[in-house]
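Notes from the pairing session

We agreed to fold both candidates in a single pass and log them together. This is the raw record for the first candidate, unedited. Please don't reformat it; downstream parsing expects exactly this layout.

Candidate A
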Amino acid sequence: MLGRIRELFSRLRRDLVRPGEGSRRERTTKRILGLAVTRLASGFCFAGLDLETGRWIRPVRPKVQSEYDRALLPCDFGCLAPHRFALAVSEWEDLCPAPTPPHVEDWLLAAPAPARVIQTPSAGDLARLLAPMVEESLAPVHPGR
């Protein structure tokens, strides 16, 4: 049992600064407008818009055993239930870019610390936040329409 725990911690440390997944110098704090919270068998998937760049972002945990083992845990959401992060602006500390196609939106929790909700926008505020990202037609995703 102790050997298995040591192996898991060894993998975790190795994955925290894996080439291509960011380094300690690239850690940053992100403010995310939560647009998707999904319950998975192994935890939660949370994603939304990076308010600095306007791009889709998804915080993930380091791989422990498989690619599918990157789900967030309840402790990553602090004392709030994960669904409270939907349609709210939250702050996530110590994130490193970890794009691995097709999941180019992934950002690795380098030193897991609970995220926190910093604002729950009104309907008008949400409309203003999302307005610059609205496409006038489906042409960008469905040419000819």
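Candidate B (folded immediately after A)
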Amino acid sequence: MTRWDEQVTDSCDNDPILMMIDVDDLGKIERRGPWNYHTHRVRRRRCPRDPKKNELKTIFHALAKAWVDETWFISSIKKRTTHPAYLKIIGLGAPAVPWILEELRNTPDHWFWALESITRYDPAPAASSMEELRDAWLNWGKEHGHNA
């Protein structure tokens, strides 16, 4: 006889939270090998859909505003680019690239690390100023269809 102890989870992570336990007729756990002793089976509900592009844009602009408001006075580029809002912008991934380029065009700032982190590309490795980097990234954006 086999009994399945189950639980349904609402989580979208990969944590196995329900276990199948083989039980013999006497109620003792059968041990046919370590691979059968604790086998995991998870039944999950569907994860919510990814946020729509408009929602991501709203999130991006809120994070960008928070980043600027909370770091405008910091002179250390390292501290500015490791701010939680900046890192969350990087976490948005490729959909954020056109918005970062738009910000770079309108109000130049240290968006270069975010762009390099997301695209894994450096369009101006020999640039000697922020203006050169800015122009190189804006040209790269035009070439790749990111018209900001």
